[in-house]
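Subject: complex prediction, re-run

Hi both,

The earlier run crashed halfway through, so I resubmitted it with identical inputs.
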Amino acid sequence: MMSQKHASYRADKRRFAVLIGAPSLIWQLVFFLLPLLFLVMMTFWSVRNFRLQPDFTLANWTMILNAGFFRSAYLYTFSISMITAAIAAVAAFPVAYLISFRLSPAAQRMLMGLLVIPFFTSLPVRIYSMQIFFSPSGLINSALIGVGLSPITVLNTPVGALVGYLTLTMPLVILLQIFALNGVDRQLVEAAHNLRCGKFRTVISIIIPSARVGLVISFAMAFVFAFGDYISPQFLGGSNPPTLSILMADQVKSGNHWPRASVVAMTMIFTLMAMMGLLLKFAYGRSGR
Amino acid sequence: MTKRTGSIGDTLTLLSLRGWAFIVFAFIFAPIVSMAAFSFNADRFPSLPWAGFSLTWYEQVFADPMIRRGLVNSLLVALAVAPLSTAIGFLAAYVDHRFQFVGKRLYMALASLPPTVPVVIMGVAMLTFQGRIGLSGTLFGIIAAHVVISAPFAMVLIRMRLAELGPDIEAAAWNLGAGPWATLREVVIPFCAPAILASIFITAAVSFDEFMIAWFISGQNETLPVRVLALLQGQVSPRINAIGTLVFTTSMLLVILAQALAFRSKAGRR
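This time it finished cleanly. Structure:
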């Protein structure tokens, strides 16, 4: 009697666990993992007479990987994402350092609150504002002409795309770097100062090494965001030259060639995974000094 | 920290740090300020000096049937996504807090990774998959996709709150004879209420602002951000600023509400 009751209690507990665990599992399996797996399968399908057909062909892979337009788009996307990440990380660091080490806690809280705002402000609309700033007769050029300089062409160039990428990534990179710097042991910094280590040298030889993991993660996130962004290269870069995201969108929206778009997506996923792996290895790798 | 009194070099460093920070903040916030300012500008072409205050663009936004439909779709989607993703996120957070099992790392990876996949890839994946099962172009298709990317935010928010629930409290409830369901209902959910409400607002804001996945899968059922993308492809239109400002105000209200709730819960603990 007693053991039977115990058994039913255990069955109850198990049912409870299964019912609690199921919704997230089912939803993410069906609407997240399955679509991604389907995308992998799609790379082997073929398109005949504009119709999608289940197939097992490597034609899409060979076609895309050998295409000149894909290779140049890949190189361009990779390099401009690296440049974005480098500029963002370097430009953000003094700001993050100022906020983390030199400002009062109240000012720190306020500025971090401000930095959250862009996440909830439509990126396309912010990019539209940038379009206006940099348009031939826009504010920037009016100002340049006003002080006697020659106007600059930014829209529809890689520099335009870069402006967009930085609009997208800067708030995130600064926030991540603040988190990284807030984790630095303050006593270590104080000890360095007491030993007459200058402020600049303290930053180089104490603060940056101790915050390395977070700093590398901020770089990695900037790369990931720029690599996948469609809005900046399209509306500020003028898809000139096109990025992988633009290739994908074009294949889907106008070319109607989903299998090829899926191949491009796969190359993006591989690249991002490889980059994350490499960067994390670099971040954690040398920590056992 | 002992402050050494004003070496000139340090004052200069601090000054240039502040100057640089000002430039970076100006770069980040100029587009947002410009969006709000030019949405009220009488002149069609956004240039200085400002041509005077006007609500024309807002009137045009509300008079445009396609924008109105986009707004209604976005609201419907966000209204469904917020409770669904919060419920799913809550359950995943509770699983992480409560159970140990083989494959838990995989389970949690599946529950937290979706936002790390670039949205353009998610868009194509969702389109091909949902197109196959006849879901693309429907509001439920958009809801399904938005729940995927919003639930992890809810999970993280609620997980942080659960970490503050001592391990003894649930055990005490069980010892007093409450079953797991009763404990969940009477102890855990009330304890997490502020985080649950906060994540309802945050997930609503995430969904309301999402443009890329929706751009791929919404078909005829455009959401508001998808409409903005369509307007962007056309010519200069201050209506974009007006919509942006409306979306911004809505999202910020949601975030401030969420923040206030999270803050109150922290104060309440003392």
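Chain A has a mean pLDDT of 90.

- K.
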